[in-house]
Design goal:
The complex is a heterodimer of chains A (498) and B (462).
Chain A lengths: L7 H28 L1 H6 L4 H8 L5 E2 L5 E5 L9 E3 L5 H4 L2 E2 L3 E2 L2 H4 L1 H5 L22 E5 L3 H11 L4 E7 L4 E8 L4 H5 L1 H13 L8 H4 L9 H11 L11 H7 L1 E3 L2 E3 L14 H6 L3 H11 L1 H11 L29 H7 L10 H12 L3 E3 L4 E6 L4 E3 L4 E4 L3 H16 L18 E7 L8 E8 L6 E7 L9 H16 L6
Parallel strand pairs in A: 1-6
Antiparallel strand pairs in A: 1-2, 2-3, 4-5, 6-12, 7-8, 7-17, 9-10, 11-14, 12-13, 15-16, 16-17
Chain B lengths: L15 H26 L8 H20 L7 H18 L6 E4 L2 E4 H22 L4 H5 L1 H18 L1 E3 L2 E7 L2 E3 L1 H25 L3 E3 L2 E3 L2 H20 L3 H19 L2 H21 L1 H11 L10 H13 L12 E2 L2 E2 L9 H34 L3 H25 L17 H18 L11 H9 L1
Antiparallel strand pairs in B: 1-2, 3-4, 4-5, 6-7, 8-9
Helix pairs in contact in B: 1-2, 1-3, 2-3, 2-4, 3-4, 3-13, 4-15, 6-7, 6-8, 7-8, 7-9, 7-14, 7-15, 8-9, 9-10, 9-14, 10-11, 12-13, 13-14, 14-15
The chains are: A alpha+beta (498), B mainly alpha (462).
């Protein structure tokens, strides 16, 4: 009776379409629950994050296990963070229910709350454990004693200190003053009022100067110029410039601009070589060296240190620069700017952390390592992940590093050291260092810089100190750096020998 | 209603396959319940197993009734209902009970108890339908009555209904409330199956050309299109996009099965696209739905909130899920996803049972599709074949529509996840559908209804 085709084949095709529709749905579920699971769970608006934020977070401990951040007892279901050592604020940051998170509290939020491994497959065995989240403790490489000593020595002056273990890149101290008390931001009762006072403070206490302060480096930058000259082959350790002794007295005239050396207590009439020029910090010598090296090579070698881009680090970092970037000469306006930049003036701006990397590379025989703050992450279930030193690469040959190191030792222990970095000398220990006096606008006192490391032959600590508007390097930053290296090597270091 | 009188031809017929599958269901439900209770109490526990035991005993009761009835019913459908209803029960017991509260005199029933009640009523309806419906001739004979009844239902909703969540869906009469559009879907399928079976030969024959498209005689197409248009218009007035979309899909599928003419599907899809574009331009709530779908993050705390929260839930679930009871149904006492017990129950399944659970639920509907289409293929006449296919597709496509919406593969249109979402109308309707499918599966009892060939002949002459 049917002139129409049979129904069976139509059913089959409709069934096929149903299967395809379901296959698409299954694929969609797979996409969300496997590929997107991690990012979705990490989204701060995910209720998971809200719940995790209320659970006890992991603690933050210093290198000896001193608790730096832990949880206050919950009051009315609200639990806030407790910070026993305000000097650690530039590192830990804070957790505030009102203002969010900062510092390591932010960087390692997922580990501290314990939702890090709640991704798609994640930790399958977690399904059989009692808690969904697994807060982890952060064990830092920082020593609270060194951190607090540095903060105390900086006092109420604005400045920053970076101390680092050269061989591993482990940060030993990272200080920024003026500081703030993260405890008062964490406590909802005081947070709003306290933040208002911090905002009114012209010293910008929330700015982490060690990683984000961009400063004119002055003479400490000569280490970069020296490296570039040596690496490019433009200069050698025995290179001298014939006109330099005269120019050091009367000024080096370059296209109408006069480059001067700082007045010295002794006159040197012989042309200086690299070691001597670094020892007595001759601007004229390094201006010549920079011009001989050329803008391109200077920029290239500087970029090996990481200058020009943000440093990969656990905290936000600002990038350092050699020039404003809009001039015709590789970003330099002219040879005058290049010459001035070669001794750390003009448009050169560096962060203390960046100078710490430069110092570390020299201390390490030319090898740059990644700076780290966290030694270990230990979950409450006992899982531990360790940070292993990461070698970024070789910045200069071992020979060149040794040349610069010897010059820095000379700056601390040489004939004229008293005027320069001599104040940083650690008694009984061969010490390397370089002072800096960063000239600012007329009428402003210069920034006082010191970079150095000790012991010079097997460095265990490298230190960068900057004190804003504190005068010459030798007057303020140099002795401060010396005391820190001394304290570390004689008292704080695990194998210190007093 | 003229049910064929049950002839007391009770010759029990064992149903081994069904019993084996029900054992699997019982084990799965038992494991689910222990898992949920243990998560809640923090140690190994079976909690208060009464709801699950009730459900399992009811399944066993229906199984025994099937055995005693001696009918040769499909043996897979009941276990599928068992597992879907069981998952529903686990989740309704698990979700915040305050989501639904109803008072009956001095008794207050909450989400889990109410759903158990609906599930048991649904199972009863399923069993009675499967055993007692021995002929579906009456369904076919009263096709225009069904059509009128369907329109009447819609009119009732339009006149008496309350607007909830932007859609006018429910009718309250005394203490009872219901969503007639659920039942409307079944009624329309019955009408469409009857109409298509009657006119199949004519619809399949091409006698009118419009350009390159060949259409059946207008006289045969018009009544159906008119019926369709009226239904669609009322559904749009109700703002029930989900039901409209579902009915349109089922309509196209049945039309294709009946005629096997791809051109109808093409025309249908073109109509759909044009209609959708017009609706998008004209109706604010349609536009809102589509815009939310395209970019829920444009307004994460407002319009996109629900959709985004569902995505988070799927993400939290991962592959294995958080485990029953270990998800995040509420944050600060507010449901993590609004309507998590109805429209977004699939997101709850995805969170707590993970990708595997979500795939398992989807597979259950696929099994239902396979059984239903198989019943259709074996049906003794066109009407029963189209009816079985239509009933199957109503359930399976509705499930696909809401699962895809939960996963943000299509815009959200508020339909329930059949046999899992909370709600009496939805549970009862879907139970009725499966009951009818079961009845249709018994080839020994349901007699083929001879197609009214005389009528077709007459009409063709006219």
């Amino acid at each position: 009776m049917n002139s129409a085709p049979g129904i069976g084949s139509g059913l089959l095709r409709v069934g096929l379409v149903v299967c395809i529709a379901y296959a698409l749905i299954f694929a969609g579920a797979g996409w969300l629950q496997v590929v997107e699971a991690g990012p979705l769970s990490a989204d701060p608006r995910n209720p998971l994050q809200l719940v995790a934020a209320r659970a006890p977070r992991g603690r933050i401990l210093d290198v000896r296990g001193v608790v730096v951040a832990d949880n206050a007892r919950a009051v009315d279901g609200v639990r806030h963070r407790r910070y026993a050592h305000p000097a650690m604020a530039p590192i830990t940051g804070y957790v505030s229910t009102i203002f969010g998170t900062a510092g390591l509290e932010r960087t390692y939020d997922r580990q501290l709350t314990g939702v890090a491994r709640l991704g798609a497959g994640g930790d399958l065995l977690r399904k059989f454990r009692s808690r969904a989240s697994d807060p982890a403790d952060l064990h830092l490489s920082v020593d609270v004693r060194l951190q607090e000593l540095a903060a105390r020595l900086l006092g109420d002056q604005r400045g920053a200190v970076v101390a680092i273990e050269p061989s591993s890149g482990r940060i030993l101290a990272l200080v920024s003053t003026p500081g703030y008390d993260p405890q008062q931001l964490a406590d909802p009762a005081t947070a709003a009022a306290y933040l208002a006072t911090l905002g009114d403070d012209s010293g910008a206490p929330l700015l982490d100067r060690a990683t984000q302060g961009r400063y004119v480096p002055g003479s400490v930058f000569k280490l970069v110029t020296g490296t570039a000259g040596l690496e490019s082959g433009a200069i050698r350790s025995d290179t001298t410039f014939a006109d330099q002794p005269v120019e050091s007295r009367r000024g080096f005239r370059l296209e109408g601009f006069r480059i001067q050396d700082a007045p010295r207590s002794v006159q040197l009439d012989q042309p200086l070589d690299l070691t001597e020029a670094l020892e007595v910090s001759s601007n004229v010598w390094f201006a010549h060296a920079g011009l001989a090296t050329g803008a391109g090579a200077l920029l290239e070698v500087a970029s090996r240190f990481g200058i020009g881009s943000a440093i990969a680090f656990d905290l936000p970092t600002a990038s350092s620069q050699l020039n404003g970037g809009d001039g015709p000469l590789h970003g330099f306006a002219d040879r005058v700017e290049l010459a001035n930049a070669s001794y750390g003036q003009a448009e050169v701006l560096t962060t203390p952390l960046q100078m710490a990397l430069v110092t570390t590379a020299i201390a390490n025989g030319g090898v740059l390592v990644r700076p780290t703050l966290v030694d270990r992450i230990v979950s409450r279930d006992g899982d531990e992940s360790r940070t292993s030193p990461t070698r970024i690469g070789r910045v200069m040959s071992a020979t060149h590093a040794a040349t610069l190191r010897d010059a820095m030792v000379q700056a601390v222990q040489g004939r004229y050291a008293a005027d320069y970095a001599g104040g940083a000398r650690v008694p009984g220990v061969r010490t390397a260092g370089k002072s800096g006096t960063a000239q600012l606008a007329p009428g402003q006192a210069p920034h006082s810089w010191f970079v150095g490391f000790a012991p010079a032959d097997a460095p265990r600590i490298a230190v960068v100190v900057i004190v804003e508007n504190a005068g010459s390097g030798s007057s303020r930053a140099v002795p401060l750096g010396g005391r820190l290296m001394n304290a570390w090597l004689k008292r704080f270091a695990p194998d210190s020998a007093p | 209603m003229r049910l064929a009188r049950p002839r007391l031809r009770m010759r029990p017929r064992t149903r081994d396959r069904e019993l084996r599958l029900l054992t699997v269901v019982a084990l799965a439900m038992g494991a689910g319940w222990v898992s949920l209770s243990s998560t809640r109490s923090g140690g190994l526990s079976i909690g208060d197993p009464v709801p699950v035991v009730c459900w399992l005993l009811a399944m066993l009761g229906v199984h025994v009734a099937f055995v005693i009835s001696g009918r040769d019913l499909d043996q897979v459908l009941l276990p599928v209902v068992g597992i879907l209803g069981g998952i529903s029960l686990l989740f309704m017991e698990r979700l915040p009970q305050g989501l639904v509260v109803q008072r009956f005199g001095d008794r207050t029933l909450m989400l889990g108890d109410l759903q158990l009640l609906w599930l048991l009523l649904g199972l009863g309806l399923l069993g009675i339908t499967a055993i007692s419906v021995r002929s579906v001739r009456w369904l076919r004979e009263y096709r225009y009555t069904w059509a009128a009844l369907g329109i009447g239902l819609l009119a009732a909703v339009f006149l008496l209904g309350d607007e909830v969540n932007g859609a006018r869906l429910s009718v309250h009469i005394g203490p009872f409330s219901g969503q007639p559009s659920e039942l409307l879907k079944v009624i329309l399928v019955v009408f469409l199956a009857a109409y298509l079976a009657d006119n199949r030969p004519m619809l399949a024959r091409s006698s009118m050309r419009v350009g390159i498209i060949r259409l059946p005689p207008l006289a045969y197409l018009l009544p159906m299109l008119a019926m369709w248009g009226v239904a669609l218009a009322l559904v749009i007035i109700q703002k029930d996009l989900g039901a409209a979309l579902l009915l349109f899909s089922v309509f196209l599928a049945l039309l294709y099965i009946a005629t096997r003419r791809g051109s109808y599907v093409v025309v249908g899809l073109v109509l759909f696209v044009v209609g959708a574009a017009v609706l998008y331009g004209v109706l604010g709530h349609v536009r809102a739905r589509v815009d939310i779908w395209l970019d829920p993050w444009a307004d994460p705390l407002g319009a996109g909130y629900q959709v985004i929260r569902a995505l988070y839930a799927f993400g939290r679930g991962g592959i294995l899920g958080t485990g029953l009871g270990a998800g995040l149904p509420t944050v600060d006492g507010v449901a993590a996803i609004p309507l998590i017990h109805t429209d977004f129950v699939f997101a709850a399944v995805g969170e707590e049972l993970g990708l595997l659970g979500a795939l398992a639920v989807g597979t259950c509907y696929l099994i239902l599709a396979e059984r239903g289409l198989r019943i259709a293929a074996r049906a003794p006449d066109d009407f029963q074949a189209l009816l079985a296919a239509g009933l199957t597709l109503v359930v399976v496509l509705q499930a696909a529509l809401i699962m895809a919406a939960n996963l943000r593969l299509v815009p959200l249109t508020g339909v329930t996840l059949p046999l899992i979402s909370y709600g009496g109308s939805s549970i009862l309707t879907n139970a009725l559908v499966v009951g009818l499918l079961l009845a249709l599966s018994d080839r020994t009892a349901v007699r083929g209804v001879p197609a009214p060939t005389a009528r077709i002949a007459r009409s063709a002459v006219a």
